[in-house]
Design a protein that fits this description.
The chain is an alpha/beta fold. Helix content is 35%, strand content 24%. The protein is built from four helices and six strands. Strands 3-4-5-6 form a four-stranded parallel β-sheet. Helix 1 links the parallel strand 3 and strand 4. Helix 1 packs parallel to helix 2 and helix 2 packs parallel to helix 4.
Length: 106
């Protein structure tokens, strides 16, 4: 699979799966299916309200977390709120996120 190297040296898969507008059940299954088919990039957001399901899909897949590029998005208005990032980590059941995207900046 093709990867891109970001300006900070981190490698990111060129193709992945997003979970926008998926119910938790759909997101969990889609993440599981994508990872077992060879995808290694998963994108979600706090606003999608499916981070916990994404985390379950990752765990169920059996793919090692270090092999997955995981990104989530946080509203700019929430970014500096204490515990915001930690809440995503808890819901995703992981100890790190590969890319945190702040949305709503102009």
């Amino acid at each position: 699979m093709t990867n891109f190297t970001l300006s900070n040296g981190i490698t990111m898969p060129a193709v992945g799966i997003g979970t926008f507008m998926m119910s938790p059940a759909q997101a969990q299954k889609a993440v599981y299916d994508a990872l077992t088919c060879g995808y290694r990039m998963i994108d979600t957001a706090q606003a999608y309200m499916n981070e916990r399901a994404v985390g379950r899909g990752i765990k169920e897949s059996g793919v090692l977390r270090k092999e997955i590029f995981l990104s989530t998005k946080i509203w700019a208005s929430q970014y500096l709120t204490e515990g915001t990032v930690e809440k995503s980590l808890e819901l995703l059941d992981t100890d790190y996120i590969d890319a945190r995207v702040i949305i709503g900046l102009s």
